[in-house]
């Protein structure tokens, strides 16, 4: 039985938000934190059912250069409740992709979320919806980055602080956006500096609050001192698809030596670039073998930071 129905997720919509959708940062209230989809029992069951190719569990270790390095791990044969216990006291973030494959109720939730926006924003049509459930330890942070599709962040439990920056220089260059879309962005292409924070939109997200920001806006996130459960959703619109294709083609042109390709938002040139991007993408010209993940820890509620080391092995997802 569906426990959420259309019209019930977004709690404080005002008609004037319609014109701001996708153009400005929107912070809205929602009701997911009251849904039993996010009870300990449901989350534990989802963890137990998660296919190995659809979850990541990470922790951090100090590298030889003193920098924090991300490590990939596994749940092993722990119960979902023990995983939650480990996250509560550890230094871990759990990323459950496509939870609807393990439990279709999350698919209904995802469909309803976008149906509610489409019902409220005239002309809005979204597609390629994705959702991920994030369960993360107190004080965990997500470093400065930008994403390819349209993004929303829905806070269900705990509190986190979010910094959002416009998708313009000095926060991100067009070249960096192109590389992001080509899957070739490196940390040095989008360096974070504290001085950028002066112009950031900074807000705390409490349970029952969500954020939607404009396309490709850089952001970073820090949990407060409590366990966090959040949901991310991703979508495309025809504008986002055009922007993707133009950036993709411009990234290829720039690699071919064209210094500053124009960024069209529509018309014939955009259509030609969409065709170029599609032709290159589907020709498999740019497909390369994905690197395997090295899994070197297991979640352990009795271990330091909620983890224990295991014999490393490679996993291809
Ligand atoms: Fe993100």
Folded structure, characterized:
With 317 residues, the protein is an alpha+beta fold. The chain has 2 domains: 202 residues, Cupin (Jelly Rolls); 61 residues, no CATH class. 25% of the residues lie in helices and 29% in strands. The protein is built from 6 helices and 14 strands. The strands form 2 sheets. It has a 10-stranded mixed beta sheet. Strands 6-11-8-9 form a 4-stranded antiparallel beta sheet, with no helix packed on it. A hairpin with a 5-residue loop joins β2 and β3. α1 packs across α2, α4 packs across α5 and α5 crosses α6. The radius of gyration is 20 Å and the shape is globular. The mean pLDDT is 91. Bound molecules: fe (ii) ion. The site of fe (ii) ion has 4 residues, from loops.
What is the CATH class designation of the largest domain? Mainly Beta
Number of strands: 14
How many independent structural domains? 2
CATH fold naming of the largest domain = Jelly Rolls
CATH homologous group name of the largest domain: Cupin
The pLDDT mean sits at 91
N- to C-terminal distance: 32 Å
CATH architecture of the largest domain: Sandwich
**Unreliable parts:** none
Describe how the helices and strands are arranged:
Blueprint: E1 26-29, H1 40-49, E2 55-62, E3 68-74, H2 80-89, E4 92-97, H3 105-120, E5 127-136, E6 141-145, E7 150-157, E8 160-164, H4 174-182, E9 201-205, E10 209-213, E11 219-223, E12 228-236, H5 238-255, H6 267-283, E13 293-299, E14 307-315
Parallel strand pairs: 3-13
Antiparallel strand pairs: 1-10, 2-3, 2-4, 4-5, 5-12, 6-11, 7-10, 7-12, 8-9, 8-11, 13-14
Helix pairs in contact: 1-2, 4-5, 5-6
The chain binds fe (ii) ion (FE2).
